[in-house]
């Protein structure tokens, strides 16, 4: 019995290490699907929202960056405001499962797309997080 418990603890520790330290493939993470109109799109394992901007793109991206970085366990991993696209990683509290969010200016839209890295369902976490960030961006965007 103690060997079974030891094996399970070791397996959980290996999973935790893999989730925390698996290499990133930025090409797949930093790209985003184009959206041509304001609206929300629920996707398997993620969520995408677009809003028409009413302020300069750099100001919108700066405000979005501040909102994301105020979120616990979030950090910027790619992109640049001058290039019009930013990518962030937000990890879950216990296991550290990563979710990736790309915020980009596409014409007169700010498009925010979040998705999980592991699994099939994020249980609505990305949608909740993105809608919260959009509330912070409300003064710089048109409502839906």
Overall domain count: 1
Determine the CATH topology. Answer: TATA-Binding Protein
Give the count of helical stretches: 4
Strand content: 25-35%
- Element-by-element helix/strand order: HHEEHEEEEH
In the CATH classification, which architecture applies? 2-Layer Sandwich
> Distance N terminus to C terminus?
58 Å
The CATH homology group name: Kinase associated domain 1, KA1
Secondary structure elements and pairings:
Elements: H1 2-21, H2 26-29, E1 39-43, E2 46-52, H3 57-69, E3 74-80, E4 85-91, E5 98-106, E6 109-116, H4 125-136
Protein name: DUF1499 domain-containing protein
InterPro entries: DUF1499 (IPR010865)
Keywords, separated by commas or semicolons:
144 residues, TATA-Binding Protein, 6-stranded antiparallel sheet, 4 helices, elongated, DUF1499 domain-containing protein, DUF1499
Word description of this protein:
With 144 residues, this protein is of the alpha+beta class. It has a single domain (26-140), classed as Kinase associated domain 1, KA1 (TATA-Binding Protein, 2-Layer Sandwich), CATH 3.30.310. It has helices spanning 2-21, 26-29, 57-69, 125-136, and strands spanning 39-43, 46-52, 74-80, 85-91, 98-106, 109-116. Strand 1 and strand 2 (46-52) form a beta hairpin. It is elongated and about 65 Å long. It starts with a helix and ends in an 8-residue tail after the last helix. The mean pLDDT is 90.
């Amino acid at each position: 019995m103690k060997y079974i418990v030891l094996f399970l603890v070791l397996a959980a520790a290996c999973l935790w290490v893999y989730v925390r330290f698996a290499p990133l493939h930025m090409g797949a993470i930093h790209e985003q699907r184009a959206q041509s109109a304001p609206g929300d799109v629920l996707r398997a394992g993620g969520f995408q929202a677009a809003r028409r901007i009413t302020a300069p793109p750099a100001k919108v991206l700066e405000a979005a960056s501040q909102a994301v970085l105020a979120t616990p366990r979030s950090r910027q991993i790619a992109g640049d405001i001058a290039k019009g696209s930013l990518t962030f990683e937000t990890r879950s509290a216990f296991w550290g499962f990563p979710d990736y969010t790309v915020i980009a200016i596409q014409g007169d839209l700010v498009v925010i797309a979040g998705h999980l890295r592991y699994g099939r369902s994020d249980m609505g976490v990305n949608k909740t997080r993105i809608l919260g960030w959009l509330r912070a961006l409300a003064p710089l965007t048109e409502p839906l």
